[in-house]
Amino acid sequence: MADHVPELEPKMLERVETLALKPRVAEALQVCVEEVERAMAEQVRISEIESPTFAEKVRGEAVLALLREYGLTDVVMDPSGNVVGRRPGTGAGPVLAICAHLDTVFPAGTNLKVTKEGPIYRGPGIGDNASGLRSMLQVLRALNRAGIETVGDILFVGTVGEEGNGDIKGSKALFDGSREIDGCLALDMADVYTVQHGATGAHRWRIAIEGQGGHSYLDYAKVPSAIHAMCRAGNIIADFDPPADPKTTFTIGTIKGGTTVNSIAARCEVDVDMRSVNLQELEDLERRVLAAFEKGVELENARWPLADADHQLKLVKTQIGNRPAGMQPDDSPAIQAALCAMKHMGLEVRQCRPSSTDVNKPLSIGIPSVCIGTGGETHNEHSLKEYFDSTDMQKGPQLAILTTLALVGIKNEVEPGLTKHKA
Questions:
Q1: Residues 44, 126: contact at Cβ < 8 Å?
Q2: Cα separation of 186 and 182, whole Å?
Q3: Architecture of the domain delimited by 10-200+325-408
Q4: In the chain, which stretches have pLDDT less than 50?
Q5: CA torsion sign, 200 to 189 to 142 to 332?
Q6: What is the reported pTM?
Q7: ∠ CA 353-130-174 to the nearest 5 degrees?
Q8: Architecture, CATH, for domain 212-323
Q9: What is residue 214's predicted lDDT score, i.e. its pLDDT?
Q10: Which of 44, 266, 286, 334 is deepest in the core (most CB within 10 A)?
């Protein structure tokens, strides 16, 4: 059952149907079928290149070389580590960024060797996100083979830092205002029946409570406990009741501290994750959570009045994640292009929901953006038992091609559905 699915805009649906009738577009879509084996071999090669978050350079260089091999001359690795290649349009149209993240959740030294069993490919990261990079590269090859000239420019981007504590570093760099970009299409997740149309914001904090600590018996009543203070804070936070609509959530994801069973803990540390599609709700929750940690320290210090100033607990707050939230109207050209392309291809919309991806940043600053599937099916992602079912994987790049062309248009044939921002 899908979430709220926007009604299709007749003009965008007509644009997609018109595109699909163009011989060159049909040729590009057919290229995706003809090159399935080549594309899958490329996905495997990419997957076997180590690319932990914050260490994506080697994989980035490989993708950079492929972008050049497939005809792009304006290709760079920017200071953030993103690989960015431009496929020029007429110069008068909008600019669309097609993004697929380079990083994986697996640390250096992980065995990334991919094994094959029929259409099934097993290996850590084979789906997330070697599949997205494969789909992005296939789009480029197909457009070139079909000789399609677009009105708008297309940026092909391998982004860094999408996973975990990478905090969408690459997307933030891409949309830092240094480039004119009018829309974003992220290729992340294999499922072509899902549209991720909004940005679930995530604020993450590492909270440490620090003091002097002491002996559990000899220093009892003289020294407050960092662990007890953290427990007091956690007790307050556990009873928070954030709204279900817009969905807003929290969790204390990790906790560590103390040294021995017979010690009053000198330090305790937790990592906290808070999420919402609504920035105001997220910020309100964040204020309450941080205030609860302040209160926990205050209560624990007050519990032991014999403790002198040197033994009082102190709170240390470090933000470790800030993924901005954002939603967009149903008539956003990015959403409409993706949904109309799915309609043309006969792909049922099984899920239409917000998520946390590279589109978070552009959506938060009002740039039409959407995340779509790459084709095939990924199972057990983020685990060593991850595997990818390549059945019908051509549908991913085919969907991306139709969505892309609906947004950037075809020279002298179809106008772009994406609006070029005024300087």
A1: yes
A2: 14
A3: 3-Layer(aba) Sandwich (3.40)
A4: 1, 423
A5: negative
A6: 0.91
A7: 65
A8: 2-Layer Sandwich (3.30)
A9: 95
A10: 334
